Amino acid sequence: MRFRRNQEGASLVEFALILPVLILLVFGVIEFGTTYNNYLALRGGVRDGARQVTVGNIGSVQSCNNSTYTGANAYTQEIICQTKNRIGSLIGLSQADIRVDVVGDNFTVGQPIVVCAQAPVKSFTGLFSPFLNGRVLSTKVQMRVENQGSIPAATSVTGGEAAQSNWNNCTVTSS
User: What is the signed CA dihedral for 40, 41, 43, 49, rounded to 10 degrees?
Assistant: First the structure.
């Protein structure tokens, strides 16, 4: 003879056991997606800034505090400001949170120029704050100068800000 057990509440217990795993999975996907989107936006902003430089289209950015740029002449400061404005509008960070460095010792047609940027990673949901907060997204874009524009030939456009982690990867690589 078989005893029939009461099954009421069994599905609720099973759901309670699996719910924490589902929450971690969903919030993990959200955090990864947000962080990856910010990396792509950082990369896109740096690419746009570098592209403006390589075609000699360096304008004047009024809304940039460029007093903290070390070793940067006026051209380099404008490059940094333009890049920060592009990144900030894509990611939604303030200019103070974004660090930009420019390497281009000999600004002449055909010579490489490197624009690098760093931005802090912040947890979107707060669930992964211990793992994400304090980390830094970094990117580097290298292009060749196509047009001098308003920059005199052989001008050094090297300089930038203090890095959030380091600028070891921000160097010209030969191709």
Answer: 160
For 51-68, letters b (16+ CB in 10 Å) and e give ebbbeeebeebeebebee
Length of the chain equals 175
Residue 75: exposed, middle, or buried by beta-carbon count in 10 A (0-12, 13-18, 19+)? buried
Overall pTM > 0.70: yes
- Burial environment of residue 40 by CB neighbours within 10 A (0 to 12, 13 to 18, 19 or more): middle
**pLDDT per position as a tens digit, 54-95:** 887 777 666 676 656 666 777 788 888 888 888 887 777 777
Distance CA 22, CA 60 (A): 49
DSSP states along 77-129: HHHHHHHHHHHHHHH---GGG-EEEEE-SSB-TT-EEEEEEEEE---SSSTTH
Give the C-alpha distances (Å, rounded to integers) separating 106 from 44, 154, 172.
24, 4, 12
State in Å, rounded, how far the first CA of the chain is from the last one: 81
**Listed residue (57, 157, 159, 45) closest to 104, CA to CA:** 157
103, β-bridge pairs:
114
